[in-house]
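note to self — DONT lose this again. spent like an hour looking for the file last time. sequence + predicted structure for the chain T wanted, 167 res
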Amino acid sequence: MTNNNSNGGIGYGNNNFNGGFGYGYPIDGGYNNSGGGGQNSLQVNVQKLDGSNYAEWSQTVRLILDGKGKLGFLTGDVPVPATTHPNYRFWKSENSSIISWLINTMEVGMRKTYMYLPTAKDVWDAVKLSYFDIKSFSQIYDLKSKLWNLKQNDRDGTTYYNELMAL
């Protein structure tokens, strides 16, 4: 859902992700097609992580951060610079913003477990370790494989339909 608002940032549900959260560009890319002088921002509702919805939550987070050029903070592709490096303060600010946003997309009772981890990647990896359910993903793969291989062949429509519904 797109929502024009005057803060020039990007909001996720009730969690505002505002400001110049980028490599020298505003988070909304600086596009202004609202015609009213305010910047166009994107309003995205992220269902809060509650422990049972990790797959959906993690995919949404990945898509949002990838769309903003920030996915490398979760994957480790954006390395932690030395504290003496000129870009360290910038990296630290970006990293803190991402951690804050991640924490705020979790149910309140879950936050304390992750809020003291030093990097967004550490938070991401710890959440994944806690909630990733390999069984669910293997079941999804198995189901997709069965659907891909299922053909009607010479069966009547009712038999074929019932086989599909049994999956």
